[in-house]
Prior knowledge:
CATH class: Mainly Beta
Helix content: 10-25%
CATH topology: Porin
Shape: elongated
Mean pLDDT: 85
CATH architecture: Beta Barrel
Oligomer: single chain
Radius of gyration: 24 Å
Order of helices and strands: HEEEEEEEEE
Structural class: mainly beta
Number of helices: 1
Strand order of the largest sheet: 1-2-3-4-5-7-8-9
Low-confidence stretches: 3-27
Amino acid sequence: MTVRLRSLSLVLAILVMAPAVSAAQSEPSITFGIKGGVNSAAVSTDVETDRRLGGVGGVFVGARITDTIGLQFEGLFSQRGATDDSAGFKLEYRSHYIDVPVLLVLGSSTDSDMQFRVFGGPMASYKLKAEASAPSLGLTEDLDDEVEDLDFSGVVGVGVAMGRVSVDARYSHGFTNFSTTAGETAKNRTFAVMVGLRLK
């Protein structure tokens, strides 16, 4: 094969491969990892309550649509609840959920070393457990029948990613009245800070 034919073959190969390469680059880049942190939770009711600290953690899957727009799906174990001292002793309400937020992520270019982002979206939560206790009295009451199984919230937050590590702060605002007691209104309000590790 002459030099001219080799050159022509190379040009043709590049022309054939270019659309495929371009299409591959335009497809979302899939990432996944783990994350965990702390919840500061409260319950919005007719009675003023104090916040309760709990753990939150799980997995995430991200899909990059463009350099600055993406979607993130998460599955998190979340400890929420509230505390109340109005009766003269500490009453603690504890609830455990599996949270599934679907978040639209807007951020800086993925080419930068440090990426800032904002995010928001809906979240569905499935209740695993609910109980109330008075530690000083040694009393614990199961509240599973008094709390709805499903809770729906809106999530907003900000974060920063540095390489494979990310940190985000978020607020979730419960829309569902999770109390099954007639005439009573109770909704979850939660702040969370989490650290994530991207595995891919």
